[in-house]
Design a protein that fits this description.
homodimer; 250 residues; alpha+beta; Alpha-Beta Plaits; 2 domains; ten-stranded mixed beta sheet; 10 strands
Amino acid sequence: MRNVKIIVSYDGSNYSGWQRQKNTRETIQEKLEDVLSKFHKEPGKIYGASRTDAGVHAKGQVFNFDLKVDIPLNRLPQAFNSELPNDIVCLDAEYISDEFHSRYDAEAKKYIYRIDNNLYRDVFMRKYAYHIYMDLDLTAMSRSIECLIGKHDFSAFRAKGCRSKEPVKNIYKAEFYEESHNIYALEIIGSGFLYNMMRIIAGTVIEIGKKKRRYDDMKKVLKSKCRNNAGFTAPAKGLTLKEIYYPING
Amino acid sequence: MRNVKIIVSYDGSNYSGWQRQKNTRETIQEKLEDVLSKFHKEPGKIYGASRTDAGVHAKGQVFNFDLKVDIPLNRLPQAFNSELPNDIVCLDAEYISDEFHSRYDAEAKKYIYRIDNNLYRDVFMRKYAYHIYMDLDLTAMSRSIECLIGKHDFSAFRAKGCRSKEPVKNIYKAEFYEESHNIYALEIIGSGFLYNMMRIIAGTVIEIGKKKRRYDDMKKVLKSKCRNNAGFTAPAKGLTLKEIYYPING
């Protein structure tokens, strides 16, 4: 029996998010555990790094599990993929120390929030970006996120129902750039993210872009530590979990 | 009554192609004519520039039609979009001379064929690129298409059933490049394209990439004017009609 770490990507459009739950549409965890159960011929259990919400996508989600059957590591991603629906794709598998836990050992995460600022939406990005047809103040949007870098209490960007005990997170990188023609990306790398934190930051940045707020409003909202002062929760479909970082020997 | 030219984009995944036909799934033309019929309160007819096949996408397809009702030009794309399914998006509308016909007046077309060469497929490109996991000889692929530039008889890259009278086409541009991480694009601008020509060229380029053929085989195939010498017809989903060019005052 070996602890295995897998990197998985998915289009979250048709799922109720990562976490297995009752009385909802299907979840990513459920789909992956179904495959593992098939391999093990008994119920399989996996541990995900990030509980992405319904409609949120992932390029580099990570999960780990005890592999109880003899499948060569280099065949494991394809073994999963051949049993998975085509909107979930495993990208890499490696053996990892028995103590490794994808969630508790994560040092940082990178999220990207995409905004489609074409006058008429980009049909190929309709599931992966939030469409805003009006002119945006891109300079203000870019300047507004500078204040997020560093160690701060992010309570202002925390949804009700967030169970995290620690609202202080360290933001290592916050950038806003044009990814492709009129598709803008808000990219943030942080030590951790509170519930809906990335989407509430994106919502606040969007309100700044629409000139409903000034760029320096972000700093005031952050300092207030009050959710009511921040912007709306931007739609899930614009959000993608890009990468999860672990200690080199983790 | 005015002749109107509209640029439209669509995700062709769920359609039987552009052209209205009986006994198939829905077509793009049908969806657009349904909207026009609603505007006109009588059956509407549109003229498309290119009859894209089932599963082929478009970023810049063009159609024209007689507009018989009073909708301001700047509201016309949105008037269509609000009635269309979300995988068809009109991008631009303009009045054009009464003689204009989107198909007969087209001077050139740009197509792009996408290959996903990631070991495991890019989940976000699964509908827009053809996945090949094995190593490809990218240099050979790139060199192979140079011979296509200029005026040639493209009978070798013409599917059975092609009704075009003129197999000689002028290729203005043929490029092969990495569009994003391991996603390669074969981009061709030509005066016209025979039935399946772009997909048969792509299939031949892919066979060269897989080293089933040498790069200079393309020239021999072209000169032979014989379909049997060319490669397979690459899958429709990798193909996107990017742009249609008209004379400046067309």
